[in-house]
Structures are given as C-alpha cells and as structure tokens.
Specification:
The chain is an alpha/beta fold. It has two domains: 272 residues, Rossmann fold, CATH 3.40.50; 71 residues. The protein contains twelve helices and eleven strands. Helix 3 links the parallel strand 2 and strand 3. Helix 1 runs antiparallel to helix 9. It is globular and about 65 Å long. The chain starts with 13 loop residues before the first helix and ends with a strand. The model has no long low-confidence stretch (mean pLDDT 94). The structure holds S-adenosylmethionine. The site of S-adenosylmethionine has 17 residues, from strand 2.
Length: 371
C-alpha cells in the first residue's frame, strides 16, 4: 500500500536498490541463456510498472537496468547469440513519470538488436493493447519475462497474471504487497474492497484468511494463498521477503516459472542480496552481523523426511521440493544427511559412493516410513 504520495522522481530506499540489483543480476543470466538457446526466437521483457527510470539517489531504475542487461548479454555473447531481437516494453501510467522515462530511455533507443517500446497506460489495459497492436511479442514460443512492480496492492488483476503464465515460456517476478493486502482485509468489509480482493486473488479464496490471526500471520497467509493460486499456473514458485526493519514487512517478491532452471537461476540472484540464508532483506540489517542463519540443512532434511515418509520417489520430485520449499538449489545436501542417518535407500544405475547423488543415474529414493 503506498505509504505516502511519491513525487515524480523519488529517493530509493535500500530495499529498492537491492530489488533492482537482484532483477538486473537475473536478467543478465536470462538474456544470455535464452540468447544462446532460443534459435531465431525474439526475447521479450515487459516491465508493467516502469517508474520514471531513475531515482534522486541512483541513476538507474529498473528500465535502465534491464536495457543495460540486455545490451551487455547481447554484446558478451557475440557469435554464440542465436536468438533474434530483444524487445523491452515499459508500461507506466503516470504521465509525468512516463515523460521522464521517455527522456531517460532516449540514449538507449535506435538499436535494431535491442528495441524499446514505451506504453503510457495502466498495466492491465496496456497488456490488452499490446496484445492487440503487437501480437508478435506474444508468440507462443518466444521467451518472455514480466516484472510487475506496483506501489501497493492495486493494479495487478490475477486474471492478467494467470493469462501471462498460460504460456510455458513465460516467467514473472511480482512485487506482492502482502502488508497492504492484509490491511485491506482488516479494515474493510465493503463491496468495493471485496471486489478488489477478488481481483487480486482471482477468486474469493481470500475469505479463507483468518480474521483473528495477528497482522504478521495474516501477511504470511496472504503470501501462501497467493503462491497457492499461482501454483495452478506455474510449477516453480519462490518468494523473497523485503523488510524496512527486522519487525516490519514491506513486500514479497514472488517469482513464478515453468522451468526448474529458471528458479535455480533466480535463487542464485536472490542469494546475492539475501542477508542470512532466509531469502530476506531488511534495510536495518545492512552492515549488521548475522546471528542465526535460515539455511540450516538439518532443519530442511527433517522437513523432507516428513514430507516423503514411506514413499519411493524420483530425483526430479526431490529437486522440485528443494527448489520450491527449501533455501537450497537441489536436494543433495539434505539427502546426504538423510542417507548418513539411515532414513533413505538409494537405487542407482551405477556403483555410487554413499553421500553422492548423480541425478542422471539415480533411479529412485525410498524414504523410511515415520515411526
Ligand atoms: C514501484 S514504482 C516502479 C519502480 C520501478 N519498477 C523501478 O524499480 O525502478 C511503481 C510505478 O508504477 C506506476 N503505476 C501506478 N499504477 C500503475 C498502473 N496501474 N499501471 C502502470 N503503472 C502504474 C507509478 O506511477 C510508479 O511509477
């Protein structure tokens, strides 16, 4: 929820700079990977809430960082580049910010390899117009990445997000204002707010959020519900928590992809700004010593053991669990611990050494039933 009316260009807080650094890090990998792998396909990046392009304390807002990442990936890949053109689309609703952004983008325009499209509109409406006016951008097989970064809870209908994710080559990173959504839920029961919540979640599942929970518990419920609804449209989902202080949530960045590699790379980018292994960033923790880490593999191997107790599963299923439900990029560290403690039996097509897990050779992993 917008805390106060922002001027045309405002000063970025630490968490905003961290968010842009994470996005930029991921996009460089994304453009490079798809630039090499997607023969002849155009790559499409859409920033639905682009902003003015800069901050009073930083020259690079998300649009500039994205274009720089695109140009860098294109230049670095030289002869190994197989994809077609990179299209970068920026949607901004506010007229003054749109004008400012257009000025800031001028030095980057006019190159055939990285084409810039500026759309002055509301995100949801801009998407409808784009589909109508530039259908080529929405071709099934071209890789697309959407950054959806509103101020607050409004302006991102779930119907638009689910439509975006109906294409299997699409990924999204959404700024989910769980705190703002929880405030709407607490403060209002009018039909207008009921409609707003239904628009945000895509249905009336928000009615399940407990009215009697604490505020911070409600924010978690908002996140979990939103992720659950996204999961109907994407297989790989993970969130990063942005806080203004240790006790004050600001928003979650929620990533959704159809491919394990996408989430792997996003978690690598998230780790770079993460402060304690819990995939979170707090403005007040910048430069502080961390007392406890959130990526204790002991804890997560117990969770994995409980989740799969009594079942025989493939390595892929465990990889998906590790990606979606734990801080890790793969299940190997947790499996190593579980095997050492005698909780799993591994079937492999090669003579494996205990504690090593070659995904190409593992046939199945059987978990002991819980006693
Ligand atoms: C959080 S700022 C974006 C910051 C930018 N993504 C960055 O990282 O540099 C949100 C922007 O969305 C614009 N905005 C607000 N409602 C909008 C809507 N419905 N559609 C598109 N833009 C909107 C605001 O004017 C503001 O510039």
């Amino acid at each position: 929820m917008p805390r106060k009316k922002q001027p045309k260009v405002w000063s970025a807080e630490q968490h905003t700079l961290a968010k842009i650094a994470m996005l930029s890090d991921y996009l460089q990998r994304w453009f490079q990977i798809f630039g090499i792998a997607s023969k002849g396909e155009n790559l499409v990046y859409i920033d639905g809430f682009a902003g003015p392009g800069e901050y009073t304390n930083s020259p690079h807002g998300s649009p500039l960082k994205a274009v720089i990442a695109a140009k860098t990936a294109r230049a670095d890949s030289r002869t190994s580049w197989n994809a077609g053109v990179i299209h970068c689309v920026f949607i901004e609703a506010d007229e003054e910010r749109f004008e400012h952004l257009s000025e800031r983008m001028k030095p980057f325009s006019g190159t055939p390899e990285v084409q810039i499209h500026l759309v002055h509109d509301q995100f949801a409406n801009g998407m409808i117009r784009l589909k109508d006016q530039m259908p080529d951008l929405f071709q099934q097989t071209c890789p697309k990445f959407f950054f959806i970064d509103p101020f607050g809870a409004k302006g991102v209908p779930f119907a638009t997000v689910s439509d975006i994710l109906s294409n299997r080559f699409t990924e999204v990173l959404i700024n989910l204002d769980a705190d703002g959504i929880a405030r709407i839920l607490r403060a209002n029961t009018s039909a207008v707010y009921e409609r707003l919540l239904t628009e945000i979640f895509g249905d009336d599942s928000w009615r399940k959020i407990s009215r009697s929970s604490s505020f911070s518990q409600q924010c978690r419920e908002v996140l979990n519900l939103y992720k659950g609804n996204l999961r109907k449209h994407a297989q790989y989902i993970f969130s990063f928590e942005m806080k203004t202080s240790e006790s004050a949530l600001n928003y979650f960045l929620v990533f959704a992809s159809q491919h394990p590699r996408g989430l792997e790379k996003m978690k690598e980018a998230m780790k770079k700004i993460d402060q304690d292994g819990s995939y979170r960033f707090s403005d007040t923790s910048v430069g502080q010593t961390i007392m406890f880490r959130g990526d204790d593999s002991n804890l997560f191997s117990k969770a994995m053991k409980m989740h799969f107790a009594g079942r025989k599963v493939s390595f892929e299923e465990l990889r998906d669990f590790a990606l979606n439900e734990t801080p890790f990029l793969n299940p190997k560290q947790m499996l190593k611990q579980l095997e050492a403690d005698g909780f799993i039996t591994v079937e492999s097509s090669d003579q494996r050494r205990k504690g090593t897990f070659n995904e190409a050779k593992i046939r199945s992993i059987e978990f002991r039933p819980e006693t």
